[in-house]
Automatic annotation (TrEMBL):
Residues 1-35 form the Zinc finger/thioredoxin putative domain. This is Zinc-ribbon and DUF3426 domain-containing protein. InterPro entries: DUF3426 (IPR021834), Znf/thioredoxin_put (IPR011723). The chain crosses the membrane at residues 92-111. It comes from the Bacteria. It comes from Thiothrix lacustris. Coiled coil: none annotated.
């Protein structure tokens, strides 16, 4: 025999023994609704139609736990195999698209932060290799604290009056090549007041300085010219920037 849930129309196969034990009240395995199985009881399985309701008047009963019976899914509720296949393919392609978008987002983040990542010991090799493959520029890592002033001297320019020539030797003591610094030279009086100041970018004290890096452990000899600040200047100092 068959009966049907009056809430979700799910169809169930039942026996008279089960109905008698449950006093006609069953719990739907689909929607968890408690219904009177006797009202829609039939000897045959419906073919895409609803059961004709049979009015069976029964006295109300108090039950503790209605019997949950095995659910027989009608053909009309089953998804066709080709539809299941299409849904599976759709989920597969959506997963691929999401993965591609996540990869593009990661690459964008890496590209935007490539200069900072290239200066970190852990990520530097990977970022530099990636930039070599895609031909992107990276600002070289620099540490001004590792540039040392080995010697310095100042004297009057031999051919130009009121111009001083400063000779200096600087060296990169870092473990990596780095860009040449901006050199600031200032002249001070006896009260440490700055009388003259000039900053020299690499292109002013190097030949073919574009893209050139300071080698490690090799001194660089420099000659810098600056206007003579006068007799009040008693000392000068270097600063790397």
């Amino acid at each position: 025999m068959y009966t049907q849930c009056n809430h979700c129309n799910a169809i169930f196969r039942v026996t008279m023994k089960e109905l008698t034990a449950a006093q006609g009240l069953l719990r739907c395995g689909e929607c968890d609704n408690i219904f009177d199985a006797m009202k829609n009881l039939s000897q045959t399985l419906p073919e895409e139609r609803r059961f004709a309701q049979k009015l069976v008047k029964m006295a109300p009963v108090e039950i503790q736990e209605p019997t949950t019976i095995e659910h027989t899914t009608p053909k009309s509720k089953r998804l066709p195999q080709d539809l299941k296949h299409k849904l599976s393919n759709a989920r597969y392609f959506i997963s691929i698209i999401v993965g591609i978008l996540a990869l593009l987002l990661l690459l964008q983040v890496l590209y935007s932060n490539r200069h900072w990542l290239a200066q970190q010991p852990i990520t530097s090799p990977i970022i530099r290799q990636l930039c070599t493959l895609v031909d992107c520029d990276i600002t070289p890592y620099r540490d001004i604290r590792k540039i040392r002033l080995l010697s310095r001297n100042v004297y009057s320019h031999p051919n130009t009056p009121k111009v001083l020539t400063i000779s200096a030797s600087i060296q990169n003591e870092a473990t990596f090549p780095q860009p040449y610094p901006l050199i600031e030279i200032s002249f001070l009086d006896k009260n440490n007041k700055v009388l003259a100041l000039r900053r020299f970018p690499p292109e002013e004290y190097l030949q073919n300085s574009k893209g050139k890096l300071m080698s490690t452990g090799i001194p660089d000899e420099l000659l810098l010219n600056i206007t003579d600040p006068g007799d009040e200047a008693i000392r000068f100092q270097f600063r790397f920037m």
